[in-house]
């Protein structure tokens, strides 16, 4: 991504970092600092990310927790959820109406985020029939997203022999997102974890009767609902 990201893009990124089923796990001891994680997701320098985080704190959109992590304030969370919802509706406009692939839609939705007013987004949502999810499986309703998080796990966290249905795909790595679709790893697909090889940094899964290897990074970005 290019330099010069907006306040809304930073809030959206922090929103994803704030929840266990986000693009990254919560901070633990030895984890990278928040500014470095935000910088990685947005493709900017740590200095740029740090300056924007100071601005967001000054504007009352984030506050610092006891471990210096950034927490969305009430107003920051409301704004972040609005941005996330807009992004997901624009993605559906691009796939359902304009014929873009699901992987392409994420990139273009980022570019178009500031183009549409909130009122335009509501009209788009209505014309599309109020879709429940973006093309990558993330709920348009952020309150439902948080409820559903309790039922989901990253594929990387399952035990060998587990079966699951893919529900959501991590979005922020465009190359990885394209790879998911190229491999048929998309929402609704049934998958079985056959073997985990931590030393090799990969897992073996069965999809549509075929075995294939998946790297740990990809497995951490596949959010699944285990089959009872």
Structure, described:
The chain has 228 residues and is of the alpha+beta class. The protein has three domains: 7-72, Orthogonal Bundle (Arc Repressor Mutant, subunit A); 77-149, Orthogonal Bundle (Arc Repressor Mutant, subunit A), CATH 1.10.10; 153-226, Ferrous iron transport protein A (FeoA) (SH3 type barrels, Roll). Helices cover 44% and strands 18% of the residues. The protein has nine helices and eight strands. The chain has helices at 7-17, 34-42, 46-58, 74-97, 102-112, 118-127, 142-149, 174-182, 216-220, and strands at 62-64, 70-72, 153-154, 163-169, 190-197, 202-207, 210-215, 222-226. The strands form two sheets. A six-stranded antiparallel sheet has the order 3-8-4-5-6-7.
What's the short story on this structure?
The strands form two sheets. This protein has a six-stranded antiparallel beta sheet. By secondary structure, it is an alpha+beta fold.
């Amino acid at each position: 991504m290019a330099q010069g990201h907006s306040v809304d893009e930073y809030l959206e990124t922090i929103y994803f970092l704030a929840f266990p089923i986000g693009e990254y796990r919560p901070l633990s001891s030895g984890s990278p600092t928040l500014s470095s994680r935000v910088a990685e997701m947005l493709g900017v320098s740590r200095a740029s990310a740090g300056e924007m985080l100071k601005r967001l704190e000054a504007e009352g959109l984030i506050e610092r927790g006891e471990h210096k992590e950034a927490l969305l304030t009430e107003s920051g969370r409301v704004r972040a959820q609005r941005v996330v919802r807009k992004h997901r509706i624009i993605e559906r406009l691009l796939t359902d109406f304009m014929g873009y692939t699901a992987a392409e839609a994420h990139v273009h939705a980022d570019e178009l985020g500031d183009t549409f007013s909130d009122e335009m987004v509501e009209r788009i949502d209505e014309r599309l029939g109020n879709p429940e999810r973006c093309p990558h499986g993330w709920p348009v309703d952020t309150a439902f997203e948080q409820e559903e998080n309790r039922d989901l796990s990253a594929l990387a966290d399952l035990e060998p022999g587990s079966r699951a249905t893919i529900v959501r795909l991590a979005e922020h790595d465009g190359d990885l997102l394209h790879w998911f679709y190229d491999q048929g790893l998309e929402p609704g697909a049934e998958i079985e974890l056959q073997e985990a090889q931590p030393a090799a940094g990969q897992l073996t899964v069965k999809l549509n009767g075929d075995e294939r290897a998946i790297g740990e990074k990809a497995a951490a970005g596949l959010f699944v609902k285990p089959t009872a």
